[in-house]
Design goal:
heterodimer, A: mainly beta, seven-stranded mixed sheet, four-stranded antiparallel sheet, about 0% helix, B: about 110 residues, mainly beta, six-stranded mixed sheet, globular
């Protein structure tokens, strides 16, 4: 088995601030994902990465940057926090992406609050 | 784009009653998407409940079943007799095998009364 760790668990920022969320996985999975979930809504894909140093935009990438520094870690940056970005950010990983979709394993989430 | 619509919650049922949570999908760029049910139990992270990658097939896990129906573009989640421990939020998701992306429904909050 493995685990996905997200830090911090809670992130409080100021409007306009640049904020970074981190994710680590020890599954040795190739593909990692960042999703955003607003209250009462489904998950929306922000960025994903199919290997180290790769980045692919999701449906919600505007206002965010991401970095896959190594296979086990994937970070997400909110470039300028806005009040309407209060949400939970979920990191996930899977063995591969593409035609055969392996199960995605999710971390516990980072809850973002912008004051 | 792809979309998933599922039963709006919250849904409340009594223990030992049957349950169905509806899920319908629209896949605009792919004929045969993969279909998933994910679940989040209280205090836990999101986890896979079951998945089906072949149209016409049924997936099952923990007493839950879902059949991939391409004709009606549906993937309803059913259980014959729910337990209090089934209380959770359930998400239907569509996997686009061209892009590798998952599209999630908004989730259905299920409460099972003892």
């Amino acid at each position: 088995g493995g685990i996905i760790t997200q830090t911090p668990k809670f992130l409080i920022g100021q409007e306009g601030q640049k904020l970074t969320l981190k994710c680590q996985q020890n599954f040795n999975h190739d593909t990692m994902y960042w999703y955003r979930q607003d209250s009462g809504k489904g998950l929306r894909l922000i960025y994903y990465s199919i290997t180290e140093n790769d980045l692919q935009k999701g449906d919600l990438s505007e206002g965010y940057d991401a970095s896959r520094e190594k296979k086990s870690s994937f970070s997400l940056t909110v470039t300028s926090a806005q009040k309407n970005e209060m949400a939970v950010f979920l990191c996930a990983s899977s063995i591969t992406s593409g035609t055969y979709q392996d199960t995605q394993y999710f971390g516990p989430g980072t809850r973002l609050l912008v004051l | 784009g792809d979309s998933v619509t599922q039963t709006e919650g919250p849904v409340t049922v009594s223990e030992s009653e049957s349950l169905i949570i509806n899920c319908t999908y629209s896949a605009t760029s792919i004929a045969y998407p993969n279909l998933f049910w994910y679940v989040r139990y209280p205090g836990e992270g999101l986890q896979l409940l079951l998945k089906v990658i072949t149209a016409g097939q049924k997936g099952s896990s923990r007493g839950f079943e879902a059949t991939y129906n391409k004709e009606t573009t549906s993937f309803h989640l059913q259980k014959a007799s729910v337990q209090e421990s089934d209380s959770a939020v359930y998400y239907c998701a569509l996997g686009n095998t061209n892009t590798g992306k998952l599209t999630f429904g908004d989730g259905t909050v299920l409460t099972v009364k003892p």
